Amino acid sequence: MKFFADTADTAEIRDLAEAGLVDGVTTNPSLIHKSGRDFVEVTREICGIVSGPVSAEVVATEHDQMMREAEVLRKIADNIAIKVPLTIDGLKTCRKLTGDGTMVNVTLCFSANQALLAAKAGATFVSPFVGRHDDVGYPGMELIADIRLIYDNYDFATEILVASVRNPIHVHDAAKLGADVMTAPPAVIRQLVKHPLTDNGLKAFLADWEKTGQKIV
Ligand code: E4P
Fold it and tell me: For atom 1 of ligand 1, which residue has the closest CA?
């Protein structure tokens, strides 16, 4: 499963990329707002840090204007994936852009039928939001299982990008279900490394090493 960092924080992206934990990046208007930076400038910087897909979201709601925004965004770098909402206008934009060879991430997916539409429109990625589903009392991972089943039934090439990931259990479940990608905030990616037995084991090894009085270098 590929790991995308769900952030516009370039310091975090750089740090996690050094550990091989960033195969791509997703941003959205809220994350750009949180960064406090210029959209095009920060997106260009991110594209220079990671070679994988970097999602940049259009903010228009009508097809022609989405295409105009996509023209600006896809010129930023070759690894840009245009993010469009799961609406009829978004799907039209998806079909046009992927037909031209541009990667498209269809976002705000909340049902298996919506994911079916994204695949039919030729999406490179579909982003089902698991955390927001959990928030309203529907198990978000059931949606991932349904989409996996449907895509496999018809050999759709669209990659399932599990979004709105809030904790390590989401990551674990997404991997078990065979999701292609998950995107998570850096803090969640960092949580994945944590295990009390690792910490305790390391502490014990270092204490015993100290007793030997030796040095490696
Ligand atoms: C990523 O593409 C999504 O925009 C993001 O994962 C949404 O996460 P949230 O529900 O925590 O805002």
Answer: 163
